[in-house]
Amino acid sequence: MDPNSEPAKWARANKNDPRAARISAEIATRPIAKWFGEWFTDIGTSVDKYVDAATAAGKLPVLVAYTLPGRDACSGFSGGGQKTPAEYKRWFSAFAGAIGERPAVVIVEPDALGDAECMSAAQIAVRNELLNFATSELRAKAPQAWAYLDAGNVGWGEPAEMAARLHDAGVRNVRGFALNVSNFHPTAKTVEHAEKINAQLKNKGHTAGFVIDTSRNGNGHAGSWCNPPKRKLGSAPQPGTTGEDYRLWIKTPGISDGPCGTAPGVPSGTYSPELAVKLIDGS
């Protein structure tokens, strides 16, 4: 577990709140990915400290790189990212270099390939150039890291189209792709979707490993991606059992998807103990 995850920090700061013990036991004690973006002013130092702490504890760090220019083009709730391609390249070079020779799992830019439907051809070309840069930097500077380009989810990106996007974005430079990040689709359906993507990638001369975000898919999908009701925590992070490399908690349970659904007043990226308890209870 990360003692500085949002659930862990909230539980420590609110020990007298009746929700704290449940959040601590059910969420904060689980390995949860750490998201890195433009809010870190010194990305190299921040990544080095996080990876160093995990390595010293005998744990495998899981990092999410989330700072592409024009991030979250479709929904806009998590908009932001670096201001220019040059800034992104400097940021990512420091990010990959800080991981160095140490083992790690890296999720590369959630939403990046699903968002293509909301972008012009010129914008897609720039994004692909940046993703190829990012994956090449990880291959060169973090050779022990297993990195995964985000590939949407069962409901966002047909297998043939997503395989083509992954190919164009440089998936051959890294271990593979990630599915269901911050979403709710069942693991079995997600594995089937991954196998279909890999069948399409094989037509391009390669296949890829994959990981699945199981942080909130315990009750499956209900037609909405934004703080939907009656969702539930999924299986704990663990090595894959049905073809996937890992099942991971990439999304932090309790972090809002945006001011919507069961949390209309909670901005994207904000921790809500109420959302966390709803996921524990499936309510």
From TrEMBL:
It comes from the Bacteria. InterPro entries: Beta_cellobiohydrolase, Beta_cellobiohydrolase_sf, Glyco_hydro_6_CS. SUPFAM superfamilies: Glycosyl hydrolases family 6, cellulases (SSF51989). One of its GO terms (molecular function) is hydrolase activity, hydrolyzing O-glycosyl compounds. The active site is at D111, D257. Substrate binds at W35, W156, N183, W225, K251. Its EC number is 3.2.1.-. GO terms for biological process: cellulose catabolic process. Residues 220-242 are annotated as: Disordered. Keywords: Carbohydrate metabolism, Cellulose degradation, Disulfide bond, Glycosidase, Hydrolase, Polysaccharide degradation, Signal. PANTHER family: 1,4-BETA-D-GLUCAN CELLOBIOHYDROLASE C-RELATED (PTHR34876:SF4), PTHR34876. Belongs to the glycosyl hydrolase family 6. This is Glucanase. It comes from Micromonospora olivasterospora.
